[in-house]
Amino acid sequence: MNRNEAVALLQEYTKSESLIKHALSVEAAMRFYAEKLGEDQNDWALTGLLHDFDYERWPEPPAHTLEGAKILREQGVNEEIVGAILSHAEWNLDDYPRDSLIRKALFAVDELCGFIMAVAYVRPEKLTGMTAKSVRKKMKQKSFAAAVKREDITEGAELLGLEVAEHITNVIQAMQGIAGELGLD
Q1: What is the dihedral of CA 143, 145, 151, 154, to 10 degrees?
Q2: What's the rounded Cα separation, in Å, for the pair 103 and 21?
């Protein structure tokens, strides 16, 4: 599956602008890490772009991810991508553990991308000039973006062998590269 086909699939199943922006941000973060780690940028980017494409139609576990995986397999999507998408949901971990770099990276960037988006929305300068320090300060405010699991952000950095601040900086940088698409420039 190429990117144009993936975008069409995403748009077929996802109408929410915020979910599409989330998919784009996770795609950018996955592409960033693939380049940094010498992995296949296209597969990693597709994984990020499609990781939640089924969420709007099937938001409840375990349908979310399992229904999407069926569709992706019917489309002939690489099993590494399908497995990584399945691994980002905790209810699939017995069958799809986070035991490969692509699976670790998807888990590591998913919640963090959402949190960085939330931080950007409350800053006048959006993503411009954002630092890990400002993100970490917001992480300490439990009422801010309360649905985001801070422990997932920390665990994700650990899975990648990074300090939390470095991981946050990397994801900010990835998202800054597509700030216009995200409406955060």
Answers
A1: -120
A2: 21
Does 62 sit behind a cis peptide bond, omega within 30 degrees of 0 on the bond before it?
yes
**Mean pLDDT (whole number) for 141-165:** 97
User: What's residue 77's pLDDT?
Assistant: 97
Question: What's the rounded mean pLDDT across residues 36-57?
Answer: 98
CA dist 176 and 151 (Å) reads 24
- Please compute the mean of the pLDDT values over residues 98-105 and round it to a whole number: 98
d(CA 129, CA 55): 32
| Peptide bond preceding 59 in cis form (omega within 30 of 0) | no
C-alpha span between 8 and 161 (Å, rounded): 34
Domains of the chain from N-terminus onward = 3-182 (1.10.3210)
Tokens 């300068």 found at: 125
How many whole angstroms separate alpha carbon 30 and alpha carbon 81? 12
Helix (H) or strand (E) holding 26: helix 17-37
The pLDDT score that the predictor gives to residue 129 is 97
Q: What number is the average pLDDT over the span 119-125? A: 97
C-alpha 103: how far from chain center: 11
Residue 48: pLDDT band with limits 50, 70, 90: very high
